[in-house]
Amino acid sequence: MSRRLPQLSALRAFEAAARHVSFTRAAEELSVTQGAVSHQVKALELELGIKFFNREQQRLSITEAGREYLAGDRFSAADLYVGAQLGWGMQFGTIPARDSLNAYAERVRARDAYQAGKAIDNALIAEMQAEQSPA
Question: So what CATH class is 7-71?
Answer without folding.
Answer: mainly alpha
